[in-house]
Amino acid sequence: MVLTDSPYNVRIAGHAGGLGTIQHQNFKMACGEMNESQFTDFLTQVFTLLAVHSKEGSLHFLFMDWRHVQELLAAGKQVYTEFKNLCVWTKGCGGWEACTAARTN
Question: Number of structural domains, the chain?
Answer without folding.
Answer: 1
